[in-house]
């Protein structure tokens, strides 16, 4: 019962926080100048009527030399109309200035670009977690020995070098010099074929190398502390072998801290993939987000900002709830 109340409360707070962030983004965006640039081949009148139809401007009048005068619709009215369209029609808007997707439905464009972003993040997690945990466990069990020192050097290097530099090194060595992988991701929509997966590997490793260092560091620090605990000595005196004591007690207790860090690393990787997607020409959500800022396509920016914000807030709830499942002694929400 405590858990149900806690989860319900956290979800309500999450939605409240999301509403505040979303509202702030909308207001700040609408304070910027309205993009009325006319692309080559476009009719200026159609551009102005499109903005009027989206509820941005009103009272359009054509002045001299083809210059249009208009009045801004009050921001609160714009926000009300925007939310009404989303809730009642599922209409997140159309691209008004993003030339490649001009007048296309934003939600359909977003969904079509979502698979590559999700896949490279899932692949990086599936590869990074076992490697990172394995290195961390080995370093903790071999503490202060040469294996531990070697792993620590590897961790420090990965943490110190920015992911952008690591990505450039991967591109240069494995894509350009050795030719093992293509420089950019395949444009095919057959995401589960070997050719597409092979083209994703450089980007996946560029994302997961930093995560591997993080997992290894967390695991080593936590497991080293648990292994020196008094309860481990008690387990050994009761007849458990060293391996049994480690697997039954040390690993489970250390996972209370390690597992939530895995979820938080996944969220950070998802945010970091914005730049990596651009570097490896991945046709994902990250490129859309950056281009929406470049093209000043405000509705596109709002949709993608809402997506990243919601993912981050939802991950926070999952991390908190995970404590109760990992360690039964923890009762989230209990007084």
Notable traits:
mainly alpha, 2 strands, 3% strand
Explain how this protein is built.
The protein is built from eleven helices and two strands. The protein has helices at about 1-30, 45-55, 75-90, 105-140, 145-160, 165-175, 195-225, 230-235, 240-280, 285-295, 300-325, and strands spanning about 55-60, 70.
Please provide a brief summary of the model.
The protein is mainly alpha-helical and 335 residues long. The chain has 11 helices and 2 strands.
Q: Can you count the helices?
A: 11
The tally of strands reads: 2
Mean pLDDT reading: 77
**Structural class estimated from helices and strands:** mainly alpha
Strand content: under 5%
Q: Span between N and C termini?
A: 12 Å
Give helix and strand order, one letter per element, not per position: HHEEHHHHHHHHH
Give the biggest sheet.
2 strands, antiparallel
**Ranges with pLDDT <50 over ≥5 residues?**
none
Q: Into which percent range does the helicity of residues fall?
A: over 70%
* Computed CA radius of gyration, to the nearest angstrom: 25 Å
Note the overall shape: elongated
Side by side, the strands of the main sheet go 1-2
């Amino acid at each position: 019962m405590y858990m149900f109340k806690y989860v319900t409360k956290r979800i309500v707070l999450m939605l409240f926080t999301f509403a505040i962030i979303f509202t702030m983004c909308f207001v700040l965006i609408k304070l910027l100048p309205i993009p009325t640039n006319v692309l080559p081949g476009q009719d200026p009148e159609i551009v102005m009527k499109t903005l009027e139809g989206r509820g941005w401007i009103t009272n359009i009048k054509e002045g001299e030399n083809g210059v249009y005068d208009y009045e801004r619709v009050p921001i609160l009215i714009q926000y009300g109309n925007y939310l009404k369209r989303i809730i009642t029609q599922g209409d997140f808007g159309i691209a008004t200035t993003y030339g490649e997707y001009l007048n296309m439905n934003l939600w359909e464009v977003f969904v079509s670009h979502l698979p590559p972003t999700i896949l490279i993040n899932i692949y990086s997690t599936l590869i990074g977690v076992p490697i990172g945990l394995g290195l961390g466990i080995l370093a903790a069990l071999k503490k202060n020995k040469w294996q531990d020192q070697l792993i620590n050097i590897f961790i420090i290097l990965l943490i110190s070098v920015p992911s952008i530099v690591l990505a450039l090194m991967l591109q240069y060595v494995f894509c350009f010099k050795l030719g093992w992988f293509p420089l950019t991701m395949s444009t095919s929509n057959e995401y589960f074929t070997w050719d597409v997966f092979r083209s994703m590997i450089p980007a996946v490793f560029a994302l997961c190398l930093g995560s591997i260092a993080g997992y290894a560091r967390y695991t080593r620090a936590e497991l080293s502390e648990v292994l020196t605990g008094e309860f481990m000595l008690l387990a050994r005196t009761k007849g458990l072998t060293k391996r049994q004591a480690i697997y039954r007690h040390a690993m489970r207790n250390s996972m209370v801290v390690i597992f939530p860090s895995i979820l938080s690393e996944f969220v950070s990787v998802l945010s970091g993939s914005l730049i990596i997607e651009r570097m490896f020409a991945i046709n994902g959500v990250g490129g859309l987000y950056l281009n929406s800022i470049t093209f000043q396509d405000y509705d596109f920016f709002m949709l993608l900002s809402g997506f990243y914000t919601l993912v981050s807030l939802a991950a926070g709830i999952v991390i908190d709830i995970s404590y109760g499942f990992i360690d039964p002694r923890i009762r989230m929400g209990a007084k």
